[in-house]
Amino acid sequence: MSGYALWTGHWLWMLVIAIILVIPAWRICQRAGFPGWMGLLILIPLVNLVLLYFIAFADWPANRTGGRNG
Prior knowledge:
Blueprint: H1 2-32, H2 47-57, H3 61-64
């Protein structure tokens, strides 16, 4: 029975970490002018590094259209 409690606790902890990572990534993507769903890519190993480099070095649509960055 205690093994089941540990399993539930593990998934709860993983959900909390996912929320802590996805919300800022979602907001950053939106403010840069990209679709917010791209923030979900932060959860996929190696793809998250590609996402960070893409956001860092891409021309942001928000800058081209005069969108709000702050």
